[in-house]
Amino acid sequence: MRSLVIGSGGREHALCWALRRENPDAELYCAPGNPGTAEIATNLPIAADDLDRIADAADMYGIDLTVVGPEVPLARGLADRLRAEGRAVFGPSAAAAQIEASKAFAKQVMSDAGVRTAPSGAFTDLEPALAFVDRQSEPLVVKASGLAAGKGAIVCTTRSEAAKAVRWLLDEGGLGDAGQTVVIESYLEGEELSVMAVTNGKDVELLPVAQDHKRLLDGDTGPNTGGMGAYSPVSIAGPALLERVKRDILFPTLEQMQRLRAPFTGVLYTGLMIDPSGIPWVIEYNCRLGDPEAQSILPLLSQGLTDSLWRAARGQPPARINVARGAAVTTVLASRGYPERPEKGAEIKVPDALPSGAIVFHAGTRRGEDGALRVDGGRVLTATGLGTTFLEAQRISRQTAESIQYDGKVFRHDIGRREAARVQQRRPIGASQQV
């Protein structure tokens, strides 16, 4: 099989890594890729949203399966373009990708499907939005409806903060076109989970559940980012909860998309809030694998990923995906100034010898003319640790993050802190407390 992965981040490096592990002798391409994917695939210098050149490359290289990583090319119709040419592509149509590209659309889908979510309103004009804010209880969340690279949700403690956020988006154009429509919703209390399902539009195969860490700094402080780390599995996501998620959220959502004549194929990402009573509420949908969740989830898959993607891309029920025992923890290494103004250019030193169980996935990196690896984005690398236990995986991830060197390195030291607390609570008295 000749496969093409679209994208250039840590998620796409992890996808290439997982596909290569299952298919050591297959022809694997990545567009545009990064220095990490170049070690396991053939990079094609084509932007992820250059639909014409990607279609030409699929013809030129005889691609059997295209796997689209990021949301932007999906929202612009890359899957439609390739399917129209008779090619198997894993990823939703532009119409279905609205479930991420428009939070207002996603909220309407949830409402029509009877999916539990925070009460909200969507607005394009400033005055009605401000009037809505005045009528709500505190705290509130103000979201840019469009694609904002994971940075479009603003948690507001007070109505005045919410009003300021609304003005920034609608009046000042704070996030450009992404913020021309705003969604204002009630704040949900609880613990977040990322549940992803491979689907052909009707059937689902769940991937291991992960928990993302959006805030930049330890203790969930600092600004929201695209994600500073993740871990999988999550102990609170037991079989009963996942069955409830499938019954009450995934299947009703897929059925509603069918009714809208926008059947969803690909990975349906459901961002959940589990409230104190254990009930799941939907925060958001994404139309692709999460990043950095993918860098934790994909290394845990022992068999069946390629077959599942291939079958779903052709409209068939996804194959069963086997999951290895153990845990994975991923720590994101960012650059100074991220997320607002990330600094680029610093030379990166990755040790030749990494801890056993460590994998380093590239995201915002490039090779300089001198051959040196350099910072080229906000999220630079992800350090994934694999272990037989969560604490072992956490230790390996943290040690790997500490061992990589470049000027301006920023990373969190507490990825998986909630899971670590649960582990400590389960330890017998007198057991080692090292984390």
Q: Any idea what the CATH superfamily of the largest domain is called?
A: ATP-grasp fold, B domain
Q: How much helical structure, as a percent, in the residues?
A: 25-40%
Q: How many domain regions?
A: 4
What CATH calls the topology of the largest domain is D-amino Acid Aminotransferase, Chain A, domain 1
Report the span from N to C terminus. 43 Å
- Give the tally of β-strands: 24
Describe the largest sheet: 5 strands, parallel
Q: Order of strands across the biggest sheet? A: 3-2-1-4-5
Based on helices, strands and strand pairing, what is the structural class? alpha+beta
Name given to the CATH architecture of the largest domain? 2-Layer Sandwich
What is the percentage of strand-forming residues? 25-35%
Overall shape: globular
Low-confidence stretches: 429-435
Summarize the structure.
It is built from 13 helices and 24 strands.
Detailed description of the structure:
The structure is a single chain. The chain is of the alpha+beta class. Helices cover 31% and strands 26% of the residues. The strands form 7 sheets. A 5-stranded parallel β-sheet has the order 3-2-1-4-5, sandwiched between helices. β10 (191-199) and β11 form a beta hairpin.
Helix and strand topology:
Elements: E1 2-7, H1 10-22, E2 27-32, E3 42-43, H2 51-60, E4 65-68, H3 71-75, H4 78-84, E5 88-90, H5 94-101, H6 103-113, E6 120-123, H7 126-134, E7 140-144, E8 153-156, H8 159-171, E9 182-186, E10 191-199, E11 204-206, E12 211-212, E13 215-217, E14 221-224, E15 229-232, H9 239-259, E16 266-274, E17 280-286, H10 293-297, E18 301-303, H11 305-313, E19 322-323, E20 327-334, E21 358-362, E22 365-367, E23 373-375, E24 379-387, H12 390-403, H13 417-426
Parallel strand pairs: 1-2, 1-4, 2-3, 4-5
Antiparallel strand pairs: 6-9, 7-8, 7-9, 10-11, 10-16, 12-15, 13-14, 15-20, 16-17, 18-19, 20-24, 21-24, 22-23
Helix pairs in contact: 5-6, 6-9, 7-8
